[in-house]
Amino acid sequence: MKGKIKYEYVTKMWKNGSTGGWHFVSLPQNLSKEIRDNLKWQEEGWGRMKALAQIGELVWETSIWFDTKVNTYILPIKAEIRKKRNLTIGQTIEINIWI
User: Fold this and answer.
1) d(CA 28, CA 20)
2) Is the pTM of this model over 0.70?
């Protein structure tokens, strides 16, 4: 991922809202602070920042969003990724992102 900064972390997947809600993982607050302090200029509308994400061997283009309620970035986990990796809510997941 030439020219991008890599961040690695372990987190748990959570779901927003009720049936049909989006699934996310939160970035650790210390990583979010580092990203925001150094790369905030890359944010687009609503605190969105383009990124590449990786879980296992799966890599996909995505974005992270800064959630002001919890003061951290969140990463949506698409249904396609959840199915391919058999991911469940509350499961501990190792994630790499490049920004």
Assistant:
1) 25
2) yes
